[in-house]
Design a protein that fits this description.
Layout (H helix, E strand, L loop, with lengths): L1 E4 L4 H12 L5 E4 L10 H4 L9 E4 L2 E4 L1 H12 L9 H31 L5 H18 L13 H11 L12 H11 L12
Parallel strand pairs: 1-2
Antiparallel strand pairs: 1-3, 3-4
Helix pairs in contact: 1-3, 1-6, 4-5, 4-6
The structure holds glutathione (GSH).
């Protein structure tokens, strides 16, 4: 299995993290985003959207970090990381949407602005960050994990850009339940960090 990867990407990191938690053998293929390797014909043949990550498993290649988490969870994670029960599956899946919508337009965009000088509407990204972090902190007041009283791909999908919020000048200090949740994830067996996370 090959993961097309950029080390500083939170979307790639969530896949690296689940691969490690599930102890899956993989080859990491570095893609040089700075020099636009992700827009080269060779990489576009893997992911026509020209985005990272992509995961190649045998003859097929998958794009989108959330879809890749689903694939790995279903293929290697038994019923633990993404259950088959309709209600439980929906509870986990709603957070995959939150990861690629509210969290991407909030703390991920704020980080892109400050760390990579991307042209984003930083006022909007800050507002979005505060609103989604407030909701998640309240949700976590009564629980240790986002759903099902255990770690699932809901936590893995939402974790990177929340834990990296400081790189977008968003402080997590007011969000004490989120801080505890981050601590819980860091204690998972086979947890690995990424640049920016200790
Ligand atoms: N929804 C996609 C978003 C992927 C994405 O935006 N990847 C970034 C790296 S974190 C990227 O490739 N950016 C380069 C570009 O879009 O040109 C996912 O979750 O995989």
């Amino acid at each position: 299995m090959k993961l097309y990867n950029a080390e500083f990407s939170g979307n790639c990191y969530k896949v690296r993290l689940l691969l490690s938690l599930l102890d899956i053998d993989r080859e990491i293929v570095p893609i040089d985003i700075i020099n636009k390797e992700h827009k080269s014909p060779k990489y576009l043949s893997k992911n026509p959207l020209g985005e990272l990550p992509a995961l190649e498993d045998g003859a097929h290649t998958l794009r989108d970090s959330q879809a890749i988490l689903v694939y790995l969870a279903k293929k290697y994670g038994k019923d633990v990381w993404l259950p088959n029960n309709a209600k439980e599956m929906a509870l986990v899946t709603q957070w995959l949407s939150t990861a690629c919508n509210d969290i991407a337009r909030g703390p991920m965009d704020a980080r892109a602005h400050y760390k990579f000088k991307f042209d984003v509407d930083i006022k909007k990204a800050r507002e979005k960050s505060i609103s989604i972090l407030t909701v998640i902190d309240k949700h976590l007041a009564a629980r240790e994990w986002l759903e099902l009283n255990r770690a699932t791909i809901a936590d893995i999908a939402c974790f990177p850009y929340i834990a990296l919020a400081h790189e977008g000048n968003i402080s997590l200090e007011p969000y004490t339940n989120i801080q505890k949740w981050i601590g819980n994830i860091k204690k998972l067996p086979n947890y690995i960090p990424m640049p920016g996370l200790d």
